[in-house]
Structure formats: C-alpha cells, structure tokens
Design goal:
The chain is mainly alpha-helical. Helix content is about 70%, strand content about 0%.
C-alpha cells in the first residue's frame, strides 16, 4: 500500500476530470512502488546467486527483473 507521503497531492478543486487525473496519478505511483519492490527482490536474489556456486537463484532474479518491466509498462498505460 502506498504511504500517505507517496500519494500525489490532492487537487484543490475536485471536478470529475481532476478526480480522474488524481486516480491515474495514484495508480502510476502504485505501479512504480510495485516495480521498486521487484527491483529490491531481484537485487537480493542476485546477491544470493553471487554467493551460491550453482547459480540456483539467477532465474528468480531474472523473473523479478522481468516483472519490473511489465509493471512499468502498466504504469505507462495509466
């Protein structure tokens, strides 16, 4: 969940258009937050993979990195 600090500022005048714009801004912020979580997960998995001789976590890190791209693509649609 986005923290209050991560929410875009609420417009002073709430017309249907500004509410829609605000909702889209919140949606984009949520997608970016999800992407950041995946980035951190990928980095953690890569750290483990670097310490493992069999590379068993590389594919998981690659999958998390792929999720970053997919989530950000959704955010661009918002």
């Amino acid at each position: 969940m986005l923290s209050d600090d991560e929410l875009p500022p609420l417009p002073d005048y709430l017309s249907p258009g500004t509410v829609h714009e605000y909702a889209r801004a919140v949606e984009r912020a949520a997608y970016e937050r999800a992407a950041q979580e995946c980035i951190e997960t990928a980095a953690e998995l890569r750290r483990c993979a670097d310490g493992c001789t069999d590379g068993r976590y590389d594919w998981k890190a690659d999958g998390a990195a792929d999720c970053v791209d997919a989530i950000r693509a959704l955010g661009r649609e918002a």
